[in-house]
């Protein structure tokens, strides 16, 4: 079940792929087996699992950077 077959190098995993990795890992599948099945590096598997354990989400987290110019209230006014 290679969910990430069309995924290019340095592209993020889809939330579906992340949830599949997490559910299979919780079912007892080894990291090495997941690495072969999804075609990603073992570090990607481990980081995905750590993200789940820390933040309980499979979605991309907001990145650091410049704060937004408009506040949420001002955006609603636009």
Report the span from N to C terminus: 45 Å
- Tally of extended strands? 0
| Estimated radius of gyration | 16 Å
Characterize the overall form: elongated
Mean pLDDT: 86
Binned strand content: under 5%
Query: Structural class of the helices, strands and pairings?
Result: mainly alpha
Unreliable spans are none
**Count of runs of 4 or more consecutive helical residues:** 4
Estimate percent helicity: 40-55%
Q: What summary fits the major beta sheet?
A: none
Order of helices and strands: HHHH
Please outline what is shown here.
This protein is mainly α.
Comma- or semicolon-separated keywords:
78 residues, mainly alpha, 4 helices, 51% helix, 0% strand
Structure commentary:
Pfam families: HTH_23. It comes from Mytilinidion resinicola. This is HTH psq-type domain-containing protein. The chain has 78 residues and is an all-alpha fold. It has a domain at 15-61. 51% of the residues lie in helices and 0% in strands. It is built from four helices and no strands. Helix 1 packs across helix 3 (42-55) and helix 2 (31-38) packs across helix 3. The chain is elongated, with a radius of gyration of 16 Å. 15% of the residues are buried. The mean pLDDT is 86.
């Amino acid at each position: 079940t290679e969910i990430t077959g069309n995924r290019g190098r340095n592209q993020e995993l889809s939330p579906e792929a992340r949830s599949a990795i997490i559910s299979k890992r919780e079912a007892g599948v080894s990291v090495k087996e997941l690495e072969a099945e999804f075609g990603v590096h073992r570090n990607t598997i481990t980081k995905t699992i750590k993200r789940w354990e820390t933040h309980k989400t499979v979605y991309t987290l907001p990145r650091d950077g410049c704060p937004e110019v408009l506040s949420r209230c001002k955006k609603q006014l636009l």
